Amino acid sequence: MPGGDVFLAIASPVRRALLDTLRQGPAPVRDLAADFSISRPAVSQHLRVLRLADLVSESQVGREHQYRLNPEPLQDVRAWVTSYERFWKERLIGLRDLLDSGR
Amino acid sequence: MPGGDVFLAIASPVRRALLDTLRQGPAPVRDLAADFSISRPAVSQHLRVLRLADLVSESQVGREHQYRLNPEPLQDVRAWVTSYERFWKERLIGLRDLLDSGR
DNA sequence: TTGACAGGTAAGACATTACTTACCTATAGT
DNA sequence: ACTATAGGTAAGTAATGTCTTACCTGTCAA
User: Which residues does A23 contact at the CB level (< 8 Å), separation at least 6?
Assistant: First the structure.
């Protein structure tokens, strides 16, 4: 479960797209790979990164490996980004004041 | 201004630390580099990535180059992460129900 | 004007990533 | 038992990222 960096995991557009797809529910690798132009092994390797970051969990069902979204680690990202919220709000207020003063 | 990927820009711990430092206000490269064990050119290169992602702006003041935090692009990250919020909330509710049922 | 300071850029070393194809095991269906 | 399906892993390669040192320009201060 640990070992992977969430920020690094979501840095790749492919991996973000994989997570986006998994929001519709668990899916086997075959289905996930179908959406991409890259090879299935490449998808497997991206899934491995997501697994190490604990963003997905895997469980074998028959000969399929179901991947399931585990969004919890994204809270770390959310917490970090949110800590910047007051800065962009202040900038927007500053902009509003600037516009007001120019009327 | 454009060209850089925000998700990629914040993937590096060094760059996140740079942004964190800039929350205390604009700072010249010298001050930013002082906090890190890496060389000043390395910091310059990280700042370049942040500039391309429009996460910082640069302005020359005398012989110093002031870097200023521009948090707006982080809203893209926030929006993406927030779209997962209901998923982890649902999982927490599921956990709560499970715990309730075990009482 | 000469020297110290601030900082960007170039070039190269080295590590890491992201792909590919080839191969392997396990399961399902006939 | 045989064949097809599902998917992980290995090995190799190409592309990127991240440092370093060396060098350059521009600015301030004596």
Answer: A69, B83, B84, B87
A51-97 pLDDT tens trace: 999 999 999 999 999 999 999 999 999 999 999 988 777 777 777 77
- Give, in Å, how far the C1' of D10 lies from the CA of A40: 15
Assign domain A1-72 to its CATH architecture: Orthogonal Bundle (1.10)
DSSP state of A35: T
User: What is the Cα–Cα distance from A27 to B39, expressed in whole angstroms?
Assistant: 45
For residue A13, what is the nearest residue in chain B, using CA coordinates? B7
Spatial CA neighbour of A83 closest among B90, B16, B15 = B16
pLDDT-derived band of residue B28, with 50, 70 and 90 as boundaries?
very high
The structure tokens 């990202």 sit at A77
- A81 to chain B: which residues are within 8 Å by CB? 74, 77-78, 81
Asked if the B1-71 domain carries CATH number 1.10.10.10, the reply is yes
Instruction: Report pLDDT digits (tens) over A16-48.
Output: 999 999 999 999 999 999 999 999 999 999 999
Q: B8, A11: Cβ pair inside 8 Å?
A: yes
Identity of residue A12: S
